[in-house]
Amino acid sequence: MTSNQPPKKIALNEKAFVFGGAYSNLQATQVILRKAAELGFHKSEIIFTGDMIAYCANPVETVQLIKSKVDHIIMGNCEEAIANGANNCGCGFEEGSECSILSNQWYNFCLSKIDNETARWMGKLPKQIFAQIGDHNFLATHATPCSINQFIFPSSLKHTETCNKVDGYIVGHSGIPFIGSANKKPWLNSRASGMPANDGTSRVWYATIRNLHNQIFIETHSLEYDFIQAQSAMASASLNNGYMQTIKTGIWPSHDVLPDIEKKPNRNTTSATKKGVQKNAFKRNHFSLIK
Known about the structure:
six-stranded mixed beta sheet; 9 helices; Purple Acid Phosphatase, chain A, domain 2; globular
């Protein structure tokens, strides 16, 4: 069972590496964590925003890897569901939707693989982390400060209510990376490290936050990885579903959770993105905060 853990408070000094939504994708998680090391981030400077397990074939190995390489892990809805032995993932999918139907297979697969000790550990993870970076205070949660499974997208961010007096927010859950502003405060979603961002590419995502001369710089970054290995693992585990194709095509099997404006073709894809020119393609995904 999940316990009501108090918010965790951490001081990260000058930088943080943020990723989430590993989704049992061991191959992508290995590449993401190698990149963190290459960039000089210590495990004490890494924040994981929840959902270690989900669609892909290696829930046990992915959890073990993140547990060994990341000091600051937030409970996502998948961790909460596994810890409680729930009969569904608690993702917030509408009942009867394609996403909900597809989740039955992968969630039951994960539930069968995670042992009781790991489930109890998941249940003790914090739902909130207050992270101080320089003089700036961020609240990191899985979805929103008010809900563990609320979907927030770039188009709906302006309608999001804030619950805490902090300088900015670090969130996940929704699968599309963005940096935006709500109530004059930055919101970062680095998602996802285990599944493409519905942008027509196989790439996965992470983010960095840096404090330079008391000015905060937030950026999202994409990475290529060997998705063929991930597909092969899913096939071997009989997880031959829409998500097995998604990790190659970059297009989600269902758009049930997306607001109408986010369903427009190529909204999250540009020619620059396809070439991997992240900085030019996503100027909106760079945010500076001066205090």
